[in-house]
Structure formats: structure tokens, C-alpha cells
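Morning F.,

Quick status update on the modeling queue. The single chain you submitted on Monday has been processed. Sequence for confirmation:
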Amino acid sequence: MQDELEAMITRVERMADALKTARAENQALRAELASKAAEAGSLQSRLSAARDRIAHLLERLPGETTE
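C-alpha cells below.
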């Protein structure tokens, strides 16, 4: 009975360690996700600005002339 109890305690301790590790990894992944989402938003803004600049430049190009 004592051996079974000790084995169960060991299993519970391992599970607690695994839970602690999983929580830390989850927190790190959430932080990385937030960082990547902010980076994606910044890149979207830059892409939109570049598209606007290109559209403006295209409007300034002279049209084809008929000769």
C-alpha cells in the first residue's frame, strides 16, 4: 500500500511539473502570437501605404497619345 501511495505521489508530482511547463509554454506562445499579430498589422499598414503611393504614381504617368 505504501509503495502504491508513493508511486501515485510521484505521478502527481510529474503531472504538476508537466502542467507548470505547459502553462509557461502557453504563456510564451501567447506573447509570441501577440507580437506576430502586431507585426502583421504593421506590415498591412505599410503595404496599404505602398499601394496608395503606387496608385498615385500611376495617376501621374502620362497617358498614351494617339499620333
